[in-house]
């Protein structure tokens, strides 16, 4: 399961390879102690599945191939392959452990590895999600015990609940949810729906009026020869969407400020919970997510962690692959900018419903990067 290559620093030989193998064996033993079954999903995954989930943007991050089965993708991480494996044939509840390489494209000149190991632990289990979240994080903390790492936590469920609580139409909420993992695009949309709404309506008024009066074909013809693949039907559909947007009231400044406040919380978890309780007074739709946050802190405390002191950042997890929809956490090595995050994980209930074609199960998991952990702890014996 562990190849003769390490993927953080290139090839390993001799003692370096032996240490890496020993570290992987140690991690898998810990994961198995949590009741996990060892699995090894296929390295090549159907590209269609990942493209449907993440859009064409995933091509910039993944290695593509094709054969008689169609377009394939070298797995960019393990979560989607593990969910596919479970939803296709797994019994419930189930726990899985794994270790193997993943592949991600990097920008020219980047020192980040294109191929590296991930060792992970995944839990598919109905019942008490707070307890499962706490169990997974506690197991990762046990696996990293003694390593010089700092943990950070977040909660995508709070962010998504705040979006759903906005007094606006479903199309806007869907757009904000779709781009919540792209902060720059997300905040541009929020401005467009709020303070910039009137100006955008004014600039697009001519196109909307032309569509309403049946003059859109003439307007398009007057603009000159068609460039690109967009058809007149595409233009008409877009103009229709603009008309709906123009007729939708702008988000109030208060709503935008409240959503920005939800996204801006950064504090120890106990203080963050108090802040969210205050914010929920002005956004009742946030209360259920705040209650889940409180229950998880209780579960983390019961699992032996100092829950109230755990650093919380509402923005944490917003630039990861877009499947986390609840609790998220990571472990980073302070003072080691040369290393990626040593571990990260979170809850991804919605992903199981997508890959299960409507049949889902609550799920949470995490990965550790063995090579990064070895590099961090070398010389600490």
UniProtKB/TrEMBL annotation:
Residues 19-184, 250-372 form the Class II Histidinyl-tRNA synthetase (HisRS)-like catalytic core domain. SUPFAM superfamilies: Class II aaRS and biotin synthetases. It comes from the Bacteria. L-histidine binds at residues 77-79, 104, 118, 122, 318, 323-324. Pfam families: tRNA-synt_His. Keywords: Glycosyltransferase, Transferase. One of its GO terms (molecular function) is glycosyltransferase activity. One of its GO terms (biological process) is histidyl-tRNA aminoacylation. InterPro entries: aa-tRNA-synth_II/BPL/LPL, HisRS-like_core, HisRS/HisZ. The keyword Transmembrane does not apply. GO terms for cellular component: cytoplasm. This is ATP phosphoribosyltransferase regulatory subunit.
């Amino acid at each position: 399961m562990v190849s003769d290559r390490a993927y953080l620093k290139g090839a390993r030989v001799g003692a370096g390879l032996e240490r890496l193998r020993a570290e992987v064996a140690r991690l898998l033993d810990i994961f198995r102690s949590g009741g996990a079954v060892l699995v090894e999903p296929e390295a090549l995954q159907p590209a269609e599945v990942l493209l449907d989930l993440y859009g064409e943007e995933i091509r910039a991050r993944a290695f593509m191939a094709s054969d008689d089965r169609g377009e394939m993708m070298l797995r960019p991480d393990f979560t989607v392959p593990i969910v596919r494996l479970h939803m296709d044939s797994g019994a419930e509840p189930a726990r899985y452990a794994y270790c193997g390489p993943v592949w991600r494209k990097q920008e020219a000149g980047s020192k980040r590895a294109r191929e590296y190991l991930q060792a992970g632990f995944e839990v598919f289990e109905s019942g008490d999600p707070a307890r499962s979240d706490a169990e997974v994080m506690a197991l990762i903390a046990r696996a990293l015990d003694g390593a010089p790492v700092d943990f950070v936590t977040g909660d995508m469920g709070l962010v998504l609940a705040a979006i759903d609580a906005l007094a606006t139409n479903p199309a806007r909420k869907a757009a904000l949810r779709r781009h919540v993992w792209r902060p720059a695009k997300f905040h541009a949309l929020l401005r467009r729906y709020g303070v910039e709404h009137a100006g955008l309506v004014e600039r697009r008024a001519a196109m909307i009026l032309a569509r309403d009066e049946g003059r859109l074909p003439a307007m398009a013809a007057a603009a000159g020869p068609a460039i690109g693949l967009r058809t007149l039907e595409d233009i008409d559909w877009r103009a229709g969407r603009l008309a709906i947007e123009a007729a939708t009231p702008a988000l109030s400044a208060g709503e935008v400020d409240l959503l920005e406040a939800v996204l801006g919380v950064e504090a120890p978890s106990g203080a963050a919970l108090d802040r969210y309780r205050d914010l929920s007074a002005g956004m009742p739709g946030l209360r259920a997510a705040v209650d889940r946050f409180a229950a998880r802190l209780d579960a983390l405390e019961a699992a032996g962690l100092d829950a109230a002191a755990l650093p919380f950042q509402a923005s944490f997890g917003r630039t990861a692959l877009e499947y986390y929809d609840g609790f998220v956490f990571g472990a980073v090595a302070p003072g080691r900018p040369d290393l990626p995050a040593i571990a990260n994980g979170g809850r991804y209930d919605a992903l199981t419903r997508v890959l299960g074609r409507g049949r889902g199960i609550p799920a949470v998991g995490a990965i550790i990067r063995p090579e990064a952990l070895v590099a961090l702890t070398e010389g600490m014996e």
